[in-house]
């Protein structure tokens, strides 16, 4: 990472805190760590980011050779049939495994498609990829921090905004445009009791993770694990 490169968001391919399998979006590139090997894609070279389905070719080809040849050898009585039966069933199992489609993360650059096999496509990974596409192809999008007006007045002069949630929960929750619109609708009337901070996620220095809401709610929120640096705040509005 260069001195001018900042981490923006991270998502794990298989399970949380798996450092051997994760995606990191920085201000300049997308990094995929897959089985401990690092693949780096410069932002300007990425043509597409998507999920897909792929077959594993090695067991498919191996099983496709082993199963019919061992079965033919059994019919022709060329060798002891018992070892050949084992080879036949092993080849059939490999053929079945290879024929099954598996989910993959696909990163297309100017050269080819790079496939990274997944156990499943988690909601966190979906949210991460959606955010990464917006950043890579649209230049990013705004997120929003809603604070009680009194709390904002107490912290607005600080260089780094550390909310009460950061002390209580360990992260600051940001809202997407749709989540902010829903929140405003629930409040009905503007009473100027809240301050809405417009945040540029590309300028946030702390790590951003997309995670489920509280009490197991399936909706994902952007959680910032650290304070919000002032240069990431685009503007504020009262509500």
Describe the protein's architecture and organization.
Helix content is 33%, strand content 34%. The two termini are 40 Å apart. Strand 3 (29-34) and strand 4 form a beta hairpin. With 239 residues, the chain is an alpha+beta fold.
Question: Oligomer, anyone?
Answer: single chain
Walk across the major sheet and give the strand order. 1-2-3-4
Figure out the total of helices.
6
Q: How is the main sheet built?
A: 4 strands, antiparallel
The H-and-E topology, N to C, reads as EEEEEHHEEHEHEHEHEEEEE
**DSSP E strands, number:** 15
Question: Beta-strand percentage?
Answer: 25-35%
The low-confidence runs, each spanning 5 or more residues with pLDDT under 50, are: none
Helical content class:
25-40%
User: In terms of structural class, how would the helical and strand content be classed?
Assistant: alpha+beta
Q: Using the alpha-carbon principal axes, give the shape.
A: elongated
Rg calculated over all Cα atoms: 25 Å
Overall mean pLDDT stands at 83
Alpha-carbon distance between the two ends:
40 Å
Briefly characterize the structure:
The chain is of the alpha+beta class. The chain is 33% helix and 34% strand. The protein has helices spanning 57-76, 81-99, 123-138, 149-155, 164-169, 177-187, and strands spanning 7-12, 22-26, 29-34, 37-42, 48-55, 101-108, 113-117, 143-148, 160-161, 172-174, 194-199, 207-212, 220-225, 228-229, 233-238.
